[in-house]
Amino acid sequence: MNKKHGLLLVNLGTPSAATPDAIKQYLTEFLLDRHVVDLPAFFWYPLLKYIVLPKRVPYIINHYQKIWIDGSSPLLHYSRLLCDKLQSQLTDVQCELAMTYGQPDIQSAFNKLKACKKITVLPLFPQYSTTTTLAVLDKLRQIVASEKSKQKIHYIRDYADHPSYIQALYLQIKQAFNEHGQPQALLLSYHGIPERYIRQRQDDYIERCELTTLLLIEKCQAKGITVPIHMAYQSEFGKGKWVKPKTCDMLQEMAKKQIHNVHVISPGFSVDCLETIYEIDQENRQLFFDAGGKQFHYIPALNDEQLQVDLIKDLINYTKTYNVSETS
Fold it and tell me: Which of 47, 97, 180, 196 is the most buried (most CB within 10 A)?
């Protein structure tokens, strides 16, 4: 390819295979990143190696094996489909996919875009966080600095309040309601972060999630959807204090309060992955039923739907970008 504009999509990452070794390798790289876990190395590394990984790998390997799609994880599968669909519709742009952890890595994807004079980097995290988006940007800055790149490299910080994003979520919800009927409640489940990151890092992630929720509620109400909409946080890891309320707790409380029919959507996940397909649609579904719930429907992520393709087109055409050398 010899195109002037490059688009680099970056998602979190995934094991290369549903095997103990591959999962261990991925988790080690992921959990040793200071953006993700910033405990002192002398304390964290032995804990990770001898306690966390021996427990965590067997716990999740069966879940991965059940949801593997065509030889890859759902996250990589849908991210590739999304990138391919964008490439087919953006004929004047070279589209590449990278992962913060695992393969394809950011360096190799960046190398494929060296002929481009301008590169737009889109971390596929709708709500900015130091644990996800900043990890991407710091890796990219190291690459650019080491290679003394003269390309114009810009990034999109996030799109938590972008009208096309809110519209896409609304249409996804509307379709689910049309197909499965209106529930008694809709729960928006975002990935959680430790509370101390908000204070110590001035991380505005929670504010961005709350803004998405507010705008989505306004959109739904304006379109005649009156179902109560709540928000919570999932995927808590470790013993520290994480943001509340927890998705699992809220679902159980709903069931106990005779809210027996719920829909759940995870707006912070651009594509479906272990945290949505297993954690929400299997694990939390069962918790809801065990607490007395009767009907549960998980609304899929935007994945490679045309809604998401159109959203990304709007983002790269009309969204403010930042120079990659700027701090965020």
Answer: 97
Residues 138 and 177 in one domain: no
276 and 219, same structural domain?
A: yes
Rounded to whole angstroms, the Cα distance separating 262 from 275 reads 18
Pair (39, 118) in one structural domain: yes
Q: Which of 235, 274, 276, 301 is nearest to 63 (CA)?
A: 274
Confidence of residue 216 (pLDDT cuts 50, 70, 90): very high
Confidence of residue 149 (pLDDT cuts 50, 70, 90): confident
Domain of residue 315: give its range.
5-159+306-323
φ/ψ of residue 119, rounded to 5: -130, 130
| Domain shared by 81 and 221, yes or no | no
Q: What is the largest CA-CA distance in the chain?
A: 61
Is 229 in contact with 280 (CB distance < 8 Å)? no
Our count of domains for the chain comes to: 2
CA distance 296 to 294: 7
pLDDT-derived band at 1, boundaries 50, 70, 90: low
> Are residue 89 and residue 224 in the same domain, yes or no?
no
- Neighbouring residues of 327: CB distance < 8 A, sequence distance ≥ 6: none
CA distance 166 to 147: 38
